[in-house]
Amino acid sequence: MDYKLEAKNANLWYGNKQALKDITLSIEPNSVTAFIGPSGCGKSTLLRCFNRMNDLIEGSRIKGEFLLDKANIYKDIEVYDLRKRVGMVFQKPNPFPKTIFENVAYGLRINGINDKKLLAEKVEWSLKNAALWDEVKDNLNNSALSLSGGQQQRLCIARTLAVEPTVVLMDEPASALDPISTAKIEDLIYELKNKFTIVIVTHNMQQAARVSTKTAFFYLGELIEFDETKKLFTNPEEEKTQNYITGRFG
Amino acid sequence: MSKSNQRKSRIVDKTFKYIGLAFTVFALLVLAVLITDILIKGLTRINWSFFTNLPSRHAANSGILTALAGMLSLLFFTILIAIPIGILAGVYLQEYGTNNKFAKFIEINIANLAGVPSVIYGILGLTIFVRLFGLGNSLLAGAFTLALLILPIIIVATREAIRAVPGTLREASYGMGATKWQTTRRVVIPSALGGILTGIILSISRAVGETAPLLVIGALVYVPFIPEGPNDQFTTLPIQIFNWVSRPQAAFITNAAAGIIILLLITFILNGIAIYIRSKWYKNIKY
Description:
Radius of gyration of chain B: 24 Å
Oligomer: heterodimer
Distance between the termini of chain A: 34 Å
Order of helices and strands of chain B: HHHHHHHHHHH
Number of helices of chain B: 11
Distance between the termini of chain B: 43 Å
Strand order of the largest sheet of chain A: 6-7-8-3-9-10
Helix content of chain B: over 70%
Number of domains of chain B: 2
Largest interface: A-B, 30 and 22 residues
Mean pLDDT of chain B: 87
Helix content of chain A: 25-40%
Mean pLDDT of chain A: 92
Number of strands of chain A: 10
CATH topology of the largest domain in chain B: MetI-like fold
CATH superfamily of the largest domain in chain B: MetI-like
Order of helices and strands of chain A: EEEHEEHEHHHHEHEHEEHH
Number of strands of chain B: 0
């Protein structure tokens, strides 16, 4: 099996505190993988290892291997190139204070693409993939900040898709949104699976059950269980997983 | 709390409010009296020839043409020098150097610089620009001196504007593979531009009123020509006013009042622009 993303005996420390303990897991291409677990369990930290966003945090240190298409993320790939191939959507919608068009075009412009026709094509393609095109196609020059929270988050997804990454990491992408916007994001994730490999961190177990093909449960920096979503939620191997998904702790 | 105690604190609360109000009114009243006084003395003196005449021994023939031209040229060069240095220094300190000792050392010293009396800058300018660099008492020497004076203001304003840009925007940019410079240039600086511009305009309005450092570096009080290049000698409006005020004749005092009105007007307009930009910017951008 050619895995898209792999972590092999991965450890991470923030200063003296160990946030990830010897984690090994493999993610298949064109799948949705959900990371669940109580706050502080390391799920976001692991997610951020895959596009090296932890580098921005002072005092963070890693040991072990992280692979993208078999290539070592921390050694064989240049960080700027890595982040173009592994995009990220954050918890709180964070559009730039620019127009809708310029938000989506951002990733293309920093790659030196300034051809108007090409930009317009890519922006349309991205917005369509993020299921936002119909809502904004007449207002592309309006400020991104004039959109609703849910639209802003889909704009951020479009912005990430524009550079055509192969992996999209999502860090609780719907936790700041209302139920209707959340449903739209979930539908979108389901669609995106056909073209991208998706890893999503979520606190919402129903969400994990709805959108993901596989689920990983983390606890105190350790990977407790990683299995087919259906199996993990109905018949988990580990007692800790059982306790967490039935709401006994966490 | 007992009832009488509650009543007492209510009275204290009210008293404080009225005392505060009284002091505010007093401060505004003083300003109003000053402005009214200047307007009465100088308003009738302002006419077209006041702007177009050269300075003269005769009060009635004197104008502010050379002072205005000198001031505008001086500001032009000051801005040219101070803006790039100020913005780059602010960006460096906030985005690149926040955690090294060198940046902390600079930061403390910039705060100190902002508190140094302007006449000291004049002495510094005299030593370095006029004498050491041999610029003489030229526009350029004046511009360098004023630029030093307003640099701390621009640097501090730039830093604060940049600090107000949320970290989530930087994350979004880095997350797409942008370099630090791309993030700074395309996201951070544009988002902070309103605050940076406000700081720049306020620093200009500070420079407009400066007299002491320019007198120290040898700006002339009587200049019967418009400066034609950066190496020319010059005078400015505050210096022209200073000159007129020190004359014994009443007619020159009237000239001074008229000059003050123009100077105030320039300052008010600059501050007005700064307030306008600030309010417009913050209305458009909410994170």
